[in-house]
Amino acid sequence: MIAADDFIEPALERGFGFYTGVPCSFLTPFINRASAHPRLDYVAAASEGEAVAIAAGAWLAGRQTVVMCQNSGLGNTVNPLTSLNFPFRIPTLLIVTWRGQPSIKDEPQHELMGQITGALLDTIRIEHRVFPTEAKDVQDAIEFTIQSMDRRQLPAALIMAKDSVRDDGLSTAPPPLRPSGAYRDRREHGRLPGRYDLLEALLAAIPDAAAVIATTGKCGRELFTLADRPQHLYQVGSMGCASGMGLGVAMNATRPVVVLDGDGAALMKLGSLATIGAYAPRNLIHVVLDNGVHDSTGGQATVSSSVDFARIALSCGYAGADSVDTAAGFRDALAEALGGDGPRLLHARIAPGSIAKLGRPTIAPPEVARRFKDFLASRAPGASNRPG
Question: pLDDT grade, residue 12 (50/70/90)?
Fold first, then answer.
């Protein structure tokens, strides 16, 4: 058994300073220390898949990241690990607990995952070894993950067995309760604009310093068709993860960050709005382009017609939110968001459909990720990016 600092301190010396995850009883002492450490940033995610997306955004913004979760939650990470980290070649250090470890009595829901944890990581091509239980083995474990990530540009994992880390107690407080932000209803209830129209309005209004993360599907494809720029990140998978990635970027970048989400994607990881509201990066603008359908898969209806994303965002702690259904209303709301503190959410009702003969990004995802990373690292004017 080791103390949490036996791992955290040497990992910090190697650059691992951004942690995110979802608790497990095996992880308790480790998460407690990570969340209280004065030189670490820790984000308590709403889901394990969201944690992977947050870490991906933080890596793009120049941080070395750690994602922590229970092995049952490893199932929730499979989609972003295989359709975000793998195609974009984004590394992170995974610490996964070993509930249901064979020969150790545990709850029945952990039996199968305990048997297949290593095999699942093998299947999704993540190199792994057991988390160290003696201080003398920590450096070797950290070196293993660094070498694996550097060589493959993919995540590497350490599997934490029961009682690997000593419990030294919890000394952190929850994020502060935030007052409800301002709501503005700009809807005119007329003919709905198209997604392409609002993307044109967005590109005409945002500053050159702004980073833009577009959700998977036709949103990113239309953005690429309109203008391919180094500050654009076109997600090609990991549905629902644009908002988490945007949070990871915004917490670590001194520039405006715009997330272009869809109604289906936002609904898939609605908990991300709570995480964004809790950590409240002032430079984040979250746009939900709501056409009421899954446009990329044939137009099947979502349930967004009964969902008020703007008021949900406000209840989660966003600084402000707008409902719009015209291009003019969108331009006004965007101008206000760019001129004030975030996070802000713009819920834009739009018409289904897309432009004819819509193409796809011709730049490979690893290149998209690395030029986006370089853009974030370039000099930019910046208001404070810290939660406030």
Answer: very high
CB contact set of 201 (below 8 Å; sequence gap of 6+): 327, 330, 331, 334
Amino acid at residue number 98:
W
Query: What is the secondary structure of 184-242 as a DSSP string?
Result: EE----SSPPPHHHHHHHHHHHS-TT-EEEE-TTHHHHHHHHH---TTEEE--S-TT-H
- CA-CA-CA-CA torsion sign (338, 219, 240, 129): negative
- Answer for the pair 55, 18: CB distance below 8 angstroms, yes or no: yes
Q: Which two tokens stand for residue 303?
A: 């349930």
Mean pLDDT, the chain, integer: 94
The C-alpha atoms of residue 148 and residue 43 are separated, in whole angstroms, by 24
Which of 160, 190, 210 delimits the end of a domain?
160
Classify burial at 309, counting beta carbons within 10 Å of its beta carbon; exposed 0-12, middle 13-18, buried 19 or more. buried
The amino acid present at 62, given as its one-letter code, is G
My answer on whether 113 and 217 are in the same domain is: no
Return the SS3 of 97.
Answer: strand
**pLDDT of res. 357:** 82
Identity of the residue numbered 315: S
Q: How high is the pLDDT of residue 381?
A: 57
Q: Which domain holds residue 150?
A: 4-160
Let me know: does 255 contact 382? Beta carbons within 8 Å.
yes
Matching residue, tokens 């295989």: 82
Give the chain's domain count.
Answer: 2
